[in-house]
TrEMBL record:
Pfam families: Tannase. It comes from the Bacteria. This is Tannase/feruloyl esterase family alpha/beta hydrolase. SUPFAM superfamilies: alpha/beta-Hydrolases. PANTHER family: FERULOYL ESTERASE B-RELATED (PTHR33938). The keyword Chaperone does not apply. Belongs to the tannase family. It comes from Nonomuraea africana. Keywords: Calcium, Disulfide bond, Hydrolase, Metal-binding, Serine esterase, Signal. The keyword Nuclease does not apply.
Amino acid sequence: MKRVLTSLAAGVPLAAAIFLPTGVAADTGSPVTGPFTCSSVSVKAPSGTTVESVTAQRREAGTVTVPEVTPLPSIEIPGVPAHCAVTVTLTHPGVGDHAKVQVWLPEASWTGRFQAVGGSAFAAGDYGAALAGAIKTGYAAATTDAGVGTYIDTTWALNSAGEVNTELLKNFADRSQHEMTVVAKQVIAAVYGKPASYSYWNGCSTGGRQGYMEAQRHPGDYDGILATAPAINWTSSRSPPCGRRWS
């Protein structure tokens, strides 16, 4: 990995958009020069997975509505550029999981860079706020739900026998983030006709922890990692959430 940028400082509120500095995005390394294709994309399944489905949808420029996900209300993000939204669903044969990968690709003014965004609390990924923010600053962006639950849903953590669901725990810990990265890079190359010139991870809280896991276990995935307020010590009642500092 060329650069690892980590910070223990608190980031932004839970599940709000978190972005790399706009100055980084403005440093264009590989602007779009070829045809932009938002159609069926061929995805090679990452090792150990099967691709269940791939969909691609072109979305007009305008306001993105992020749905209500307990405990957070719905929000609207204006000024989101026209983009291609590709959804790839992966499964690990014999496990019965269904991990959804979302890749948003701006139709114009792509900087040639890729930004992956992490989750918050018990959610492994983003519901649209950080994805929208990333493509507004010229990145192609991706996230994954890892096939688990929402911010405060932990029902997935135990199987029907009341034992730890180790396969979903692997997804939540780091497996799905790495597989999302592999898939997203393929999608970016297919849609733009060339690969991203630089790849970045951006996450806070659970997303910060995921960033640390990426740096440790998959150092070749990203050129830079912004991992703020990593949710590592889950047993501590003194850990501040993103966007807050203890006085």
